[in-house]
Specification:
Order of helices and strands: HEEEEHEEEEEHEHEHHHHHHEHE
Distance between the termini: 65 Å
Oligomer: single chain
Number of strands: 13
Shape: globular
Protein name: Carboxypeptidase
CATH topology: Rossmann fold
Keywords: Signal
Helix content: 25-40%
Number of helices: 11
Structural class: alpha/beta
GO biological process, one term: proteolysis
CATH architecture: 3-Layer(aba) Sandwich
Largest sheet: 9 strands, mixed
Pfam families: Peptidase_S10
Number of domains: 1
GO molecular function: acyltransferase activity, transferring groups other than amino-acyl groups; serine-type carboxypeptidase activity
């Protein structure tokens, strides 16, 4: 009798897992291009954030290499449009880096990786999330699942965290921070505020929120773009004369919409000078920006198709000394079948990984300004770090 009951319970549990679409996380112990076992704990997985459309956000969770039971947990989001968080993991603060060397694309090989000793994971556990839906390896089973915006994506991230912490209760007592850069700077203070509201309402699980951090964040206000003028003057890219002309004739109006001829001419000159530099890092060599995106205007290539192995949008191979060369290496590495298998990517969930999706998926810009959310969360006493 007990055996029959146990069999019945196991059958129902299996049925729930299949129907719900949730899958157990993947413990990643090795990755193509890296020699030997990974010297850190890496877990990957999916969390459903939209049951109606079957939308799932993909994540990489790297436990702190210090004391994971005491060190803080950091949610990290990458900017956009819809850029993969793999950029942050492999280009910025993660414990792995690409070996910058000529890659010949020989059959069976992938770009090499090496351990990065100055990772943020030395002091914190980092939860890297591909968001919004459609970024990186996140996907939707229905086309309408990709039709999201700033508000809905922020709410989906809160849903993600609620579910993730429910499945990882050992980390609930750790100090928790929300972080992101560039366009993700719009989401971060909203997500932090929503978490704080859940805490005040006594909702479970209770996340131990302590604050947030944003790097060169977008706010949605004119200062995001207008601040380029004083900045580029300060670092010597534009002359004193051009700077003074803009200051005297643009009269504080948004610089992308000049109101008089002199201001328009000055801004044309400013934009021409801006084109001559690599604006993300003025000391780097000016190269073509590499972020291959689909050419079609549909989501057809993203929705549960069987992989053919053929890459449709391979980027041009830049010179090795171009900063964008790492994007080329990432494109090759992330589209390797062994890479996907090791990361636990769901078969048929997507056709081709691209670093960013620029305007080929629908997205609603429905947060005019994030400043009020910064005020709301900091007024509650939460810590904030805003850096460039």
């Amino acid at each position: 009798m007990e055996a029959q009951l146990l069999s019945r319970l196991l059958f129902l549990l299996l049925g729930f897992i299949i129907v719900s679409g949730e899958a157990a996380p993947t413990l990643v112990t090795s990755l193509p291009g890296f020699d030997g076992a990974l010297p850190f704990h890496l877990e990957t997985g999916y969390v459903t954030v939209d049951e109606e459309h079957g939308s799932e956000l993909f994540y990489y969770f790297i436990e702190s290499e210090g004391d994971p039971r005491r060190d803080p947990v950091l949610l990290w989001l990458t900017g956009g449009d819809r850029c993969s968080v793999l950029s942050a993991l492999l280009f910025e603060m993660g414990p792995l880096r690409f070996v910058i060397e000529p890659y010949d694309g020989a059959a069976g090989t992938v770009p090499r990786l090496h351990y990065h000793p100055y990772s943020w994971t030395k002091a914190a556990s980092v939860l890297f999330v591909d968001s919004p839906v459609g970024a990186g390896f996140s996907f939707s089973r229905h086309p309408r699942g990709y039709d999201v915006g700033e508000v809905s994506s922020s709410l989906q991230l809160k849903t993600f965290l609620t579910k993730w912490f429910t499945e990882h209760p050992d980390f609930l007592s750790n100090h928790f921070y929300v972080g992101g850069d560039s366009y993700a700077g719009k989401y971060v203070p909203i997500v932090a505020q929503k978490i704080s509201e859940d805490i005040e309402a006594g909702l479970k699980p209770t996340i131990n929120l302590k604050g947030y951090l944003v790097g060169n964040p977008i706010t949605g206000e004119a200062i995001d773009m207008d601040s380029r003028v004083p900045y580029l003057h300060g670092v010597g890219v534009i002359s004193d004369q051009l700077y003074e002309t803009i200051m005297e004739n643009c009269h504080g109006e948004p610089y992308d919409n000049p109101k008089n001829v002199i201001c328009a001419q000055a801004m044309d000159r400013f934009k021409a000078l801006l084109e001559e530099i690599y604006d993300s890092q003025i000391l780097y060599k000016k190269c073509n920006y590499l972020s291959p995106t689909p050419n079609d205007k549909t989501t057809h290539g993203r929705i549960l198709q069987q992989e053919t192995g053929a890459l449709k949008h391979p980027p041009p191979r830049p010179q090795v000394d171009c900063h964008g060369y790492i994007t080329y290496l990432a494109y090759v590495w992330a589209n390797n079948n062994i890479t996907r298998e090791n990361l636990g990517i769901k078969e048929g969930s997507m056709g081709e990984w691209v670093r960013c999706h620029e305007k080929d998926l629908p997205f609603t810009h429905d947060i005019e300004s994030s400043i009020k959310y910064h005020r709301n969360i900091t007024s509650k006493g939460y810590r904030a770090l805003v850096y460039r």
